[in-house]
Amino acid sequence: MNALQIVLILIVAGIAGMGSVLDEAQTHRPLVVCTLIGLILGDLKMGIILGGTLEMMALGWMNVGLAMAPDTALASAISTLIVINTHTSVGEGIAIAVPLAAAGQALTIFVRTIVVFFVHKGDDFAAKGNYRAIEWMHGIALALQALRVMIPTAIIMTLSTAAVQHMLAAIPTVITKGLQIGGGIIVVVGYAMVINMMDVPQLKPFFYMGFLFAAFTNFNLVGFGGLGLIMALLYLQLEYRNENKAPRVATVSNTSASDDDLDDDLDDDLDD
């Protein structure tokens, strides 16, 4: 890697570290981080494939209350570097990303604990009306989150390709295969968590149908994407048609009711 690539990768890693706590722009997601690093290293295809695979694993990972999710930013940055530089497979990249996500989870808890000090200092500055100092406290806290991903990424970049390959070869096959299988299970769990949070039971048959098609057909991801798009369009058309029918029935019933009232009034006038 040249100097420009190293600087760009560190910038992406820093933005991913800050995005993992901001959550607004979703810059810490594997699909974003892996794609950008793959583009920088000249292997965009591998970056997209690895990012899409890791994205399915991390789909249901999120911070809820005091529960910290595994760190996708650190796992995405380092796993992409290792996979592209050592020319390993996506499966080995998943096996690397899973323990990295767990390590990043512990690291982000440590950094967030340190950030508490700057939060309290910000409260003190707020009581004094020093808004510039409050901005500095926010900036330092974000900088620590950026360094949380940048420093481990820089350490990996300092290692030679042979050293990284030797480290990967030292991992027993039973562990790498187990992590790959576990990663596949996490994908299903991630989708299940998202469906439970969406609370849309009427869409669950489509979810089950996708598994049946995957098990008994030879569809690839492009075919599944096209099939999902067609099913979504059909569902929206049927839903829109049902919504249009309901007001029409209500209008007819209201009109008939008003006509009945007019007829009753006319009959009363004739009787008088």
Automatic annotation (TrEMBL):
GO terms for cellular component: plasma membrane. Residues 249-272 are annotated as: Disordered. It is found in: Cell membrane. InterPro entries: GatZ_KbaZ_carbometab, PTS_IIC_man. Its main location: membrane. Pfam families: EII-Sor. Keywords: Cell membrane, Membrane, Phosphotransferase system, Sugar transport, Transmembrane, Transmembrane helix, Transport. It is a multi-pass membrane protein. The chain crosses the membrane at residues 6-22, 31-54, 60-84, 96-119, 139-162, 174-194, 206-236. GO terms for biological process: phosphoenolpyruvate-dependent sugar phosphotransferase system. Residues 258-272 have a biased composition (Acidic residues). NCBIfam families: EII-Sor, PRK15065.1. This is Pts system mannose-specific iic component. It comes from Ligilactobacillus agilis DSM 20509.
